[in-house]
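thought: user wants a sequence for this fold. calling inverse folding tool.
action: design(structure=
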């Protein structure tokens, strides 16, 4: 079941759902607007020119209120908001259609697990032929919350728990299964 604005406001009031900072106009009928933070990370070039899943990837991270995303460029960014989801709530990250129509693709693997706490890292890609200026504090997407039928038996406590800033891939920490 997707949560309504009324339920979201009540959960925020009861502090069973935490979103900080938040302004009342971010609450939409069936979602919460998310805003762009001020941290951006890009993958640093490797000497081999190859990214592997077994080794840590290095990133160059900057803090700025404005970031110029060049055509064909990929950058990690973060939400301005810090989230704490209870163990019975999940969320979907959706980009804004207005930005997609400019060629700005916004993703984060699309899913926020129950029990997650932290800022959400967004993957941004400029599919346009022109640069796109990104501005901290600007609405870039929305979070749609869904109530689960029961609290998760194993809520999220993974490698991105508590993240702040544009957090790079930690896939190298995964244990391989054979």
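)
observation: tool returned 178 residues.
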């Amino acid at each position: 079941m997707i949560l309504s604005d009324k339920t979201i406001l009540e959960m925020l009031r009861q502090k069973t759902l935490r979103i900080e900072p938040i302004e009342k106009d971010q609450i939409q009928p069936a979602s919460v607007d998310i805003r762009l933070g001020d941290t951006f990370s890009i993958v640093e070039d490797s000497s081999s020119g190859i990214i592997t899943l077994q080794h840590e990837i290095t990133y160059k991270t900057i803090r700025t209120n404005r970031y110029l995303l060049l055509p064909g460029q990929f950058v990690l960014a973060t939400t301005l908001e810090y989230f704490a989801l209870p163990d019975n709530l999940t969320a979907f990250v959706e980009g804004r259609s207005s930005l997609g129509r400019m060629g700005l693709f916004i993703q984060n693997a699309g899913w926020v697990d129950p029990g997650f706490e932290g800022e959400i890292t967004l993957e941004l890609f400029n599919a346009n032929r022109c640069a796109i200026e990104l501005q901290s504090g600007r609405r870039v997407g929305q979070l749609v919350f869904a109530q689960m039928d029961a609290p998760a038996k194993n809520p999220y406590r993974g490698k991105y728990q508590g993240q702040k800033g544009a957090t790079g891939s930690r896939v190298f920490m995964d244990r391989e299964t054979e």
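thought: summarizing for user.
answer: Here is the designed sequence. Helices lie at 5-14, 97-100.
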